[in-house]
Amino acid sequence: MTWLPKPKIAHPQLPKNALGMTRRDYEGVLSTLCAGCGHDSITAAIISAAWEMDLPPHRVGKMSGIGCSSKTPAYFLGAAHGFNSVHGRMPSVATGAYCANRDLIYLGVSGDGDTASIGLGQFAHAIRRKLRMLYIVENNGCYGLTKGQFSATADPDSKSKKGETVPFSPIDPALFAINMGASFVARSFSGDKEQLVPLIKAGLAHKGFAMIDVVSPCVTFNNHEGSTKSYDYMREHEEEIIDLVDWIPPEREITTSYGEGETVDVTMHDGSRVRLRKLAKDYDVHDPVAAGAFIQRRRHAGEIVTGLLYLDRAPRELHDIMGTVDGPLRDVAMRDLCPGSAALAKINASLR
Ligand code: SF4
Questions:
Q1: CA of residue 102 to ligand 1 center, whole Å
Q2: How many CB atoms lie within 10 A of CB 54?
Q3: Contact yes or no for 226/197 (Cβ under 8 A)
Q4: Which is more confidently placed, 253 or 104?
Q5: pLDDT in tens, 105-116
Q6: Does residue 13 sit within a domain?
Q7: pTM
Q8: Which residues does a 6 A CB cutoff place in the pocket of ligand 1?
Q9: Which atom of ligand 1 is closest in space to residue 38's alpha carbon?
Q10: Domain of 288?
Q11: Substitution site in 218, 222, 223, 230 for ligand 1 pocket (most atoms within 8 Å of beta carbon)
Q12: How many C-alpha atoms does 272 have within 13 Å on its Cβ side?
């Protein structure tokens, strides 16, 4: 694969974040995706989120599998760590990396084929093991890299360019993640940057498994009339239920005012807050059973619900569950890993 570096010329007056970095410092190499691909908009949203959060790029671990979506980590955070794994195997590589070094912020980017077909088992176990990571599914309902065959997230009433329909039931990554125990589940649309950027920020700050299913039209193979993953379809059928208005870091004052009763703040484990505005009166974002039933009801009515769908107020993550040491395991000294033959003899004696 050939990587095309971006020219480093930038306007001298570009705004800088608290680290003295411009947004351009969060870019990667030039994208080789088709012009207009939704995945490039998600890349731009990730760059905005990381820059606005003052994330040091070298503290991020970018993980991906195979597909058009999985090429995108090359296009953002060029100074981050990265691992482009084989098809559907990103979660197990991420598990290994997270076990070895819990100090990095893990951002996985996957596609609907990579996640919902060959990688479905891996996806399920990453959720149930509660990896602390943000897992973004760039969902276009087709395999763009191999000429647009339907994927497992394609809806039965969606039509291919030649008019064929999908014979099988779809897998909804958001419903699946809620059912498997993810503690932060959201859905968004690549064409809605205002919604997507705060969701990515909150997902990166979340202490637990966070998943955002982003409908991201494939302009080459699945953006025609009859497709349910096209720009036009999403604009007509998107129903936002919980608007994540903002993610507010721990040390920052709330300077924006919102109407009383319209918004609610939820404090995260690190003292940051997410500010939510409830758009559907009967929706409880903290109830996974009700959230799943609501999403299914709306799906049967032809609506694709977006926004923050589920948030666990007391999330747990793998290292808490396993009771590991506070720092990265790769930093544990040999003397602590191997307490010596006397200690081993004592353990053996206790088992006789
Ligand atoms: Fe994007 Fe589709 Fe082109 Fe792949 S084939 S880069 S998904 S538009």
A1: 33
A2: 12
A3: no
A4: 104
A5: 999 999 999 999
A6: no
A7: 0.92
A8: 33-34, 37, 39, 68, 140, 144-145, 218-221
A9: 1
A10: 23-350
A11: 218
A12: 15
Token pair 């998600």: residue: 42
* Residue 1 pLDDT: 58
Q: Is pLDDT above 70 for 63? A: yes
Contact 206, 231 (CB under 8 A): no
Tokens 């721990």 belong to which residue?
A: 250
- CA distances 340 to 287, 330, 334, 347, Å, are 49, 19, 10, 11
Q: For residue 8, is it within any domain?
A: no
Residue 7 in any domain: the answer is: no
Strands 238-248 and 133-139: unpaired
Mutate which of 43, 109, 219, 231 to test ligand 1's pocket (most atoms within 8 Å of Cβ)? 219
Q: Is residue 131 within 8 Å of 101, Cβ to Cβ? A: no
Radius of gyration of the chain (CA): 21
Q: How confident is the model at residue 262 (pLDDT cuts 50, 70, 90)?
A: low
- Kindly state the DSSP code that residue 34 receives in the 8-state scheme: P
Rounded to whole angstroms, the Cα distance separating 143 from 234 reads: 19
- Residues 73, 31 contacting (CB under 8 angstroms): no
Angle, vertex CA 183, rays to CA 154 and CA 249, nearest 5: 110
Q: Determine, yes or no, domain membership for 57.
A: yes
CATH number at residue 228: 3.40.50.970
Give 70 Cα–ligand 1 centroid separation in angstroms. 11
The count of structural domains within the chain is 1
What pLDDT does 260 receive? 45
Q: Which atom of ligand 1 is nearest to the CA of 140?
A: 7
Closest by alpha carbon to 227, among 178, 313, 154? 154
pLDDT, average across residues 227-254: 85
